[in-house]
Amino acid sequence: MTLASALSLSKPLREMYESDPTVQKIIDTAKGLEGMPRHASTHAAGVVITRNPVDTYVPLAKNDEAVVTQYTMTTLEELGLLKMDFLALRNLTVLDDAVQMVRSHTPDFDLHAIPDDDPETFQMLSDGRTCGVFQMESAGMTGVCVGLRPKDIEDITAIIALYRPGPMESTSSAPSSRPRQASPWAPISQDGHKERRSAPCGGVLSGKRGNTRQGGGTDRGG
């Protein structure tokens, strides 16, 4: 509700505004402040990268001990400046701590040597035991894992990519309602021959020329 809207909708307020100079001055002053930032805040991970010193492009200020731009990130992008978000993940520390614990009894353990097709891991996710698993531990994600029952790394990629506000709004049902193992058919080309299944993306090919694909990934059908 803006002040202009309040004046048009509220007859008592409008009468006070028109009859009392003090009220009129207060509201007019407030109109000038309306919509302006309430306070100066600092983006947790945003860094502006420029060829020359940043103050040659935008005004700067100090927020506590940090030097920050006085423009918002939207304005910076409109000006053509490069803003990068550098994020730190607590999970990386958890992984490193786990590696050190394992190496205490298996010195040659290598995190990068862990296979990405471990059946027990996918069974764990399918059972809903996702606590502590990065990007998979929310209640919604856990439900998708139980419903979809991921069998390979491509399923994990699809779950993380699709269970987001944008994709979820553009589809009538969650990914968990269409488990991969419940699709016994294979794509059929126009001449009746089975094509190679595009397993990594689970694409659905239409029967028209200039076939369209629904689903993420790359069509590897023949």
Describe the structure.
The structure is a single chain. The protein is mainly α. It contains nine helices and six strands, in the order αααβββαβαααααββ. The protein has a two-stranded antiparallel sheet with strand order 1-4. A two-stranded antiparallel sheet has the order 2-3. A two-stranded antiparallel sheet has the order 5-6. Strand 2 and strand 3 form a beta hairpin. Helix 1 (3-9) packs across helix 2 (11-19) and helix 2 crosses helix 3. The chain is elongated, with a radius of gyration of 28 Å. The model is unreliable at 182-186 and 204-222 (pLDDT under 50).
Radius of gyration using CA atoms only: 28 Å
Largest sheet: 2 strands, antiparallel
The helix content, as a percent range, equals: 25-40%
Structural class: mainly alpha
Task: Name the helix and strand elements from N-terminus to C-terminus, one letter apiece.
Answer: HHHEEEHEHHHHHEE
Distance between the termini: 58 Å
- Average pLDDT works out at 79
Number of strands: 6
